[in-house]
Amino acid sequence: MTSADFVDMENSSCGGGPFGRVVRWLKPVPERSWGKVLEAAREAKKLGEDDLRRIVHSFKVGLALTLVSLFYYYRPLYDGFGDDAMWAVLTVVVVFEFSVGATLGKGINRMLATLLAGALAVGVHHISTLWGGEVGEPILIAFFVFVVAASVTFMRFFPALKARYDYGLLIFTLTFCLVSVSGYRETQVLDVAHKRLSTIAIGSCTSIMVCICICPVWIGVDLHNLVAGNMENLGVFMEGFGFEYFDIKGNGLSLSNQQYKSVLSSKSLEETMVNLARWEPGHGGFKFGHPWEKYLNVGSQTRQCAYKIEALNTYLNTGIQVPAEIRSEIQEPCINICTESGKALKELAAALKKMTRSSSADSHIACSKAAVESLKLLSLKRGIWKDADLLETIPSAAVASLLIEVVACVEKIAEAVHELASVAHFKTEQPQLLQEPALSEEYHVAITIDRNSTEGLPKNGSSDCITTNV
Amino acid sequence: MTSADFVDMENSSCGGGPFGRVVRWLKPVPERSWGKVLEAAREAKKLGEDDLRRIVHSFKVGLALTLVSLFYYYRPLYDGFGDDAMWAVLTVVVVFEFSVGATLGKGINRMLATLLAGALAVGVHHISTLWGGEVGEPILIAFFVFVVAASVTFMRFFPALKARYDYGLLIFTLTFCLVSVSGYRETQVLDVAHKRLSTIAIGSCTSIMVCICICPVWIGVDLHNLVAGNMENLGVFMEGFGFEYFDIKGNGLSLSNQQYKSVLSSKSLEETMVNLARWEPGHGGFKFGHPWEKYLNVGSQTRQCAYKIEALNTYLNTGIQVPAEIRSEIQEPCINICTESGKALKELAAALKKMTRSSSADSHIACSKAAVESLKLLSLKRGIWKDADLLETIPSAAVASLLIEVVACVEKIAEAVHELASVAHFKTEQPQLLQEPALSEEYHVAITIDRNSTEGLPKNGSSDCITTNV
């Protein structure tokens, strides 16, 4: 029933009197809210389906909080800490994050900062009581609070500290202020500091244990998959681009899936993930001290490649046809470049995903470089562009030039991936006969058909790439 | 004195005995630390000099904390709140952020969430005591804690809620757990909730007042300047690019300053800033409800342009000379496109910075479009490329093609800026005679010299752009 139905119904049953008007005014509101609730429920369902770990995470937070609130329910535990047990609850809420890396980072930061700041605050409290006297004590404490808060706040601007210890610096200020200030009223300042430290340690450890023991979300694995997935997305685009640009149908590849666009703005996400992944202990194939920062290099090279691909993408669907004379000359090397660099990217992504050192991408890169050379050799043939007009020539030349750039980028990506594989001691994979993915079966057919034509589609396979004869 | 000097000194004075060895082992440590301290001090000085507001911010945090800790020192205030006064200290540490928008967002989130969660927790406490009895009460409370924590945690995954209310949802969980759980031990649960709410309100308000009243940092202004600055950086690059690419000296423009690169990855920064700017009240020329989200559109179009410019940038310093025959044909329209689109971007940036609706960029865009047309008209002249070889031709054609793309991007940026100016009701500026910036004085000279030559450098000024006769 829509709100319009409601209004109709009200019109018929309540008439136009003041009561009817009030009902009409009231009724559509819950109706609209109901629609909103339904919409929110649909969105929630989608969020959960997209990543089941979100639902698991929510239950984990609920569990950790219920566990830690046991301190209140059981008298022996409560008697030990009293109201201070709430610090444990507070810590769980604040420290429990989606990934293990983030939870560990926050938990360790919080515990260490509380320890250090607590010690400093106890020291400051002693100095103030010794030197200050009744009048001077609050002035001295206020002075120290001002100085410590201002200098620690300034330290948070240091990029190196901000990346890993921002939360710790915040908690340092917090604990220092709480302990030193509350020391003015409570004589047992050491007791305050001790209770705060123990409850925070209990809260942090509960969070970390629940986070790691129940379906852990390793941000390192997510980062690894993100970087590999980004390369794969570029590879898929490149494989399809040549066919799409020269308008060759039946290759089974589609560019409707332009997932590479997310690569363009992945910089800050990758940086955050690297900072969090560093906190994680060894898991799966990743040891503690895995060279996470090398992923930034791979990611940065991938992004450089994505910028070129973004430029290439504008030449699709421009409505400008490639002139027939130019097409016959540059189509073969261009399509070779696209398929080979696309395959190279996909091989690199697959090797990275499997955590192996593989040289299978190298042959594809060699083939794409050979195609670049054959494109450049065309330069010896003067007069290719003679009969074409510039309006049509410029875009084709730009595409050719960008493709050459893409090959250079792919080479740099391969270098970055090899460096990562070497530093991370990935196991070496013996080069093996390439398995064609199921996707390219139709492509096989297209090639078989076209090999007999003069169009000159790329040779298939990795080892049989042949420099085009010109 | 380096640590090597130290070792040398120790070698000569202490000999090779065990004492000498210990001293040698100990001395370089403070020496190295001293070096690190000096380095950190230099970095701190640089951070402060880069943005003085950082130092001011640090003092503001110190001041706010000192102010709020008065609650502890003055007995009348302390008697009202007791130990709960520490919530005010805690709130200041957590809520006080660099910008007004961030502080207001966190403060309002924290106060609202505490109010709502406190009310809910008091309700839950009553239900549990009424229905649960001695045994059932903790079970009921634990059940409610689990359900509320899990569902609010899941709500934090909704992108719309995450953008503006993430902190509020966190504090909602926190307050609900604290009040409902501590209600099990304390009978005065309403008192707990009330004290928590008042102290948090005091802390938040102190932070907000100090943040706004002492040298406020408006993130809206920062966002405004960032978006305008990004356009200006692109403009500076474009103005210089034509001369650099065709290797024309003495234009007074340098490309060593490649500040446009930061535009490539500015997406997430802009999104964060827009979310924070929405919290800010009216300030300067910005009213509350200023269309901040329109800046995202301008930023996104600017980024699209930056991707093209990134592609253009790779054609500088490739070592490939533009063939003389092609150069003579395309140099004039290309340089026209560069200077005119660069000027258009700079005019747009200047108008945005001054918050005026200006049409002065439109004439530059018209000129750059005229230059594009004259470049396209060259297509009627067959055989331009006849004598050139492809290796040299491709890059020039790619540059020409990218320049055409840049003009399209600049037009879209202008549209986005005009839309922003119209929605934000910027005041209209009468088109006036253009003032050349000081930078282009040398450029004037270059043009005066070159006007008599056959090279055909761009005509200067905005109104006298002439479609090149071909």
Considering the chains and any ligands shown, give keywords for the structure.
disordered C terminus, 18 helices, about 475 residues
Question: What's a concise summary of this model?
Answer:
The first copy, chain A, is mainly α. Chain A has 18 helices and two strands.
**Helical content band of chain A:** over 70%
Largest sheet, strands/sense/barrel of chain A: 2 strands, parallel
Task: Name the overall outline of chain A.
Answer: elongated
Rg of chain A from C-alpha positions? Answer: 32 Å
Largest interface, Cβ cutoff 8 Å: A-B, 84 and 84 residues
Question: For the largest beta sheet of chain A, what order do the strands appear in spatially?
Answer: 1-2
Give the terminus-to-terminus CA distance of chain A. 72 Å
Describe the protein.
- The structure is a homodimer of 470-residue chains.
- Chain A has helices at 3-14, 18-26, 28-50, 53-68, 70-73, 75-81, 86-95, 100-155, 159-182, 189-213, 219-245, 261-264, 267-277, 293-313, 324-354, 360-377, 390-423, 441-451, and strands spanning 356-357, 427-428.
- With 470 residues, the first copy, chain A, is mainly alpha-helical.
- Chain A has a two-stranded parallel sheet.
- The radius of gyration of chain A is 32 Å and the shape is elongated.
- The termini of chain A are far apart.
- Chains A and B meet through helix 3, helix 4, helix 7, helix 8 and helix 9 of A and helix 3, helix 4, helix 7, helix 8 and helix 9 of B.
